[in-house]
Structure formats: structure tokens, C-alpha cells
Amino acid sequence: MAIDVNSLTHSRPSQVTNENRQPTVGRTEPSVQQQQTGKSAVAETVSMTDAAANLKKISSQMGKLPVVESKRVEEIKKAIENGDFEIDEVFVADKLIGMEKLLHEYDRNSKH
């Protein structure tokens, strides 16, 4: 959805689309009574963008998925039992070295 900026005036509110919607946070100031009593009863509101709501939904759905692929585990077990499972030592070594580099980089960056 496009916004026609030529027809906008200062008195007319701008149109907001899903593409340019930003999260909004609102806060109301405490009343005189709240200020006098010292109670911190400040009302705050927060609204999420559609993208944030979708991410929350996807995250929840992913949390329900199994961490282990049972079918793949069974395939590997059978291959080991049959003597058909081969380990690529170079591939494993490359992955270990890569992980070590990432851990070293993370450790170096987290100390700053």
C-alpha cells in the first residue's frame, strides 16, 4: 500500500501500513493523588507489530517440534549395525575446528 505524500497536510494524520508500522509504547503521568501518596501506579501500554506477533507464534510452534529426528536416528543405528556407516574424518575435523573458532571469537567479543 503506497502513501500519497503530495496530498498530505499538517492537519491530516499520516496513513500507517503494515510495512511501516512501528511498535508503540504509551505511558500516562501519575495523578496528583498518586504523586502525593508516592504510589507508583503508572499505567503503561505496549503493542507489538504484526511481525513481532508472527515471530512469537512461530517460536511457540517451533518449541513443540522434536529436537531429534527419530527417523534419521533409526537410519544411522541400522547403518552402524550393518557396518555400512562411514565417518568422514575430514568433515568432522573441519566442523570441530569451525566450532572452536566460533567459540574463540565469541569469547573474545564477550570480554569487551
Q: Features of this protein?
A:
about 50% helix, two-stranded antiparallel ribbon, mainly alpha
Q: Which ranges are low-confidence, i.e. pLDDT below 50, for 5 or more consecutive residues? A: 9-18
N-to-C CA distance? 44 Å
Class inferred from helices and paired strands: mainly alpha
Give the ordered list of helices and strands. Answer: EHEHHH
User: What is the CA-based Rg, rounded?
Assistant: 28 Å
Shape field: elongated
Number of helices: 4
Helix content: 40-55%
Main beta sheet: 2 strands, antiparallel
The average pLDDT value, as a whole number, equals 77
Number of strands: 2
Biggest sheet, strands in spatial order?
A: 1-2
The percent range for strand residues is 5-15%
Provide an overview of this structure:
49% of the residues lie in helices and 7% in strands. Strands 1-2 form a two-stranded antiparallel ribbon. With 112 residues, the chain is mostly helical. The two termini are 44 Å apart. The chain is elongated, with a radius of gyration of 28 Å. The longest helix has 22 residues, at 89-110.
